[in-house]
Amino acid sequence: QVQLQESGPGLVKPSETLSLTCTVSGGSFSSYYWNWIRQPAGKGLEWLGRIYTGGITNYNPSLRGRVTMSVVTSENHFSLKLTSVTAADTAVYYCAREETGDGMPYFFDYWGQGTLVTVSS
Amino acid sequence: DIVMTQSPDSLAVSLGERATINCKSSQSVLYSSNNKNYLAWYQQKPGQPPKLLIYWASTRESGVPDRFSGSGSGTDFTLTISSLQAEDVAFYYCLQYYATPRTFGQGTKVEIK
What we know:
The structure holds two protein chains of two kinds.
Chain A: E1 3-7, E2 11-12, E3 18-25, E4 33-39, E5 46-52, E6 57-59, E7 67-72, E8 77-82, E9 91-101, E10 104-111, E11 115-119
Chain B: E1 4-7, E2 10-13, E3 19-25, E4 30-31, E5 36-37, E6 39-44, E7 51-55, E8 59-60, E9 68-73, E10 76-81, E11 90-96, E12 103-104, E13 108-112
Parallel strand pairs in B: 2-13
Antiparallel strand pairs in B: 1-3, 3-10, 4-5, 6-7, 6-11, 7-8, 9-10, 11-12, 11-13
């Protein structure tokens, strides 16, 4: 059974950089797309972006260049960096795997439990 | 971006009755080359991540009870819970995976009447 686990600081100061890592276990890591999705308290889901195990990335333009994702295939983990954070970035951050077919990404089939990141001084 | 709009925002249904949630996309999510609708449904309970219920608009994920069904094509989709159980109280979200950025509906809260 594939398992994903987010880790990182739960509190980040305004204007600083949010950094999270997602560690994957129990299944194949290669040849999948790995995603970050967030959910502010009481609100809906926002897709932040994805990284393929080959390193190709796609980001949500709404983040205006503040996001960077990286992957370490040999260690089965991928990471998120979000710069210049504000209170609006306070949310539960989920990592998720995208099911693939013929090399194409589809729906999110496995999710981490999520980690709350609060932006506050 | 493809905008996903769900209706209603919330609904209260008696135990054993039918619950119907609608999802409309701002453009078609039907891929003509394979005739598949790139639409999924998720269930989210408090303190938990979303759980995949339905993909390709109507394919039930393994282990999902058959009281959950999905239908629709193009821009209009429906999630139906044929006989609401207490454990179905949750938020439900649709997702389009036709294009990036991936976008979700705003969510529908299902409660017991």
